[in-house]
Amino acid sequence: MSTAPSGPDHANVPSPAAGTPGTTTASPTDRATTGAVALAVALDVVSVLAFAAGGRATHSANSPLTAVAGIAWPFLVGLAVAWIVLRAWRRPLAPWPVGVGAWALTWAVGMALRALTGEGLAVPFLVVSALFLLATLVGWRLVATLVTRFRAARAPR
Fold first, then answer.
1. Are 47 and 82 contacting, i.e. CB atoms less than 8 angstroms apart?
2. What's 2's DSSP letter?
3. Is the pLDDT of residue 1 over 90?
């Protein structure tokens, strides 16, 4: 018998030997690559920044960069919280639970921080932000999943 790696996610307990009937071992494709994690972080951040830029374009502001940063920062904090709570680096491309969880936590923490700092929480803003973040944070993951499945189905066997 081998021993599972120790760390925050693994107790140092015996694991079945590879090849034991009824057991499965994680293949290298089951683990997120550094590139997949970096891509997921980048797409998530771009999603939040696109939301903030869209909000800035809808409302006039003196400095576009300041306006985008002012809109984005609570949601970027929420996104960071989501990545940590969900341990999103493990399965960064998964629409469920990572995409949906990232959306919910990004939106909820972002709105809480806006409320704590005295920023507006108008109902249209609540709805539009929730829908935009849902469409982007979950949407790109759905597209990635479909592309991955399509490529796997077309791969020579």
1. no
2. E
3. no
36 is written with which tokens?
Answer: 């997949």
Distance CA 151, CA 95 (A): 18
- Residue 105 host element (H or E): helix 100-116
- Residue 58: its pLDDT value, please? 63
What residues contact 120, with CB distance under 8 A and at least 6 apart? 114
More confident of the two residues 26 and 61: 61
Assign 30 a pLDDT band (cuts: 50, 70, 90). Answer: very low
Of residues 118, 138, 119, 135, the one with CA closest to residue 127: 135
Return d(Cα 53, Cα 56) in angstroms, integer.
5
At residue 52, what is the residue type?
A
What are the backbone angles phi and psi of residue 44, rounded to the nearest 5°?
-65, -45
What DSSP string describes 34-86? HHHHHHHHHHHHHHHHHHHHHHHHHS--S-HHHHHHHHHHHHHHHHHHHHHHH
pTM: 0.77
Q: Are 17 and 1 in contact (CB under 8 A)?
A: yes
